[in-house]
Amino acid sequence: MQFSDFGLDKRLMSMVEHLGFSTPTDIQQQAIPAAMTGQDLIASSKTGSGKTLAFILPALQRLMKNRPLSKRDPRVVILTPTRELAKQVFTQLRLFTAGTQFKAVLILGGENFNDQVKTLEKDPHFLVATPGRLADHLSQGHFYLNGLELLILDEADRMLDLGFSKQLSQINNAADHRKRQTLLFSATLDHAQVNEFAQELLKKPKRIAIGSAHTEHKDITKRFYLCDHLDHKQALLEHFLATEDYQQMIIFTATRSDTERLSAELSAKGLSAVALSGDLNQGQRNQIMDGFSKGQQKILVTTDLASRGLDLVNVSHVINFDMPKHTEEFVHRIGRTGRAGSKGESISFVGPKDWLSFKNVEAFLQQSITFEQVAKLKGKFKGIKPKKAAQTTKAKTTDKTSSKKKVVKTNKAKKAFHIAHDVGDMPVLRKKSVIAIEDIDNTDNEES
């Protein structure tokens, strides 16, 4: 199948050819014709599969062929979980709207709110936004969605994981009319919250699943190394930086402080490194990503902030300095390499604190993972064994303790008095709750 088989508008086809797109990917082959019929869509495919073009082309086709429902309201809203992904989608959208009458704007958190109000007053056709900031403008009446024709949710699973369900529902309710079409893209359809949310947003959607999150990425080689502690990880990192032939590298850490620390240490050793974390404002983050994408730095040290959506074609290596807390993020992290048919290398460090996350990744990938070693940097850590034996021992100990308690109670009962004697003028009464010795003896005989 070729792009010419979709029946796209001539202006769109001219732009597709000009930008060098030839053969559509699997997700594009299935999603574009379905979206062009006007029906709702829920789709999943692995990272780097071309999802962005799969919704940009049908959106532009709709705007070129149909009259607007409103002269002032935006016609298409595209929501993404992160500012970086929103910016990347906006950049690709601008390539296709160049030379047309359609205006596209970018609305992100962390940027000047009043400037965005002025931008929204210009009645743009496309809004590319993060859900939190867009919901803020919607609440204050800076724009309306009564005439919205197409709502697109890119990486809906990630938006829900980040806690944007309330804002997504607000945006959905503001444009809840029968002529609206909704396209929902997710990394996986095996996500309970995504399926529940899809029932709220979509009307009889077509479901498309290309590959699986568990599917092996043929262009990425995965290597895992056991580590004793932080110093061991850093020694391995220095080894690979010195021995691997890489174009650009992304190093993923667990915390924001680690991104700054590692970046500073690598820079001090003469390596071209930069850190990216959520502590930075949007302008700083944009500057870092622009510089890295242009090849100004060879190493990007980051948290999961850069694990999704970013299309960085020169990244040949990904190193998981720390294993991700959320299992699915492993697939998205390593998906930053091996893009557009290129080969990629993924290297993961697994220490005692990473062990549980590693086992979850192993189960998620549905494969048994073997560890490799660097001859001069072998460690003592061999993994953590399950605690089944300890649980059995604990159970036996509990049984012994409980049986001892029973014996003690029985002995106390045997020593209790059972016959009343007169002492002076005050009679000592029989203890009502105590069992007679004959009964206790009989009970002991029965138990034995």
Descriptive notes:
By secondary structure, the chain is an alpha/beta fold. The chain has 3 domains: 3-210, P-loop containing nucleotide triphosphate hydrolases (Rossmann fold); 220-377, Rossmann fold; 400-447, no CATH class. 42% of the residues lie in helices and 15% in strands. It has 16 helices and 15 strands. The chain has helices spanning 10-18, 26-36, 51-65, 83-97, 113-120, 131-139, 156-161, 165-174, 192-201, 230-243, 256-268, 282-293, 328-334, 355-365, 388-415, 437-447, and strands at 41-45, 76-79, 104-107, 126-129, 150-153, 181-186, 206-210, 220-226, 248-252, 273-276, 299-302, 315-320, 344-350, 422-423, 426-427. The strands form 3 sheets. Strands 3-4-2-5-6-1-7 form a 7-stranded parallel β-sheet, sandwiched between helices. Helix 5 links the parallel strand 3 and strand 4 (126-129). Helix 6 (131-139) crosses helix 8 (165-174). The termini are far apart. Mean pLDDT is 83; it is low at 402-428 and 433-448.
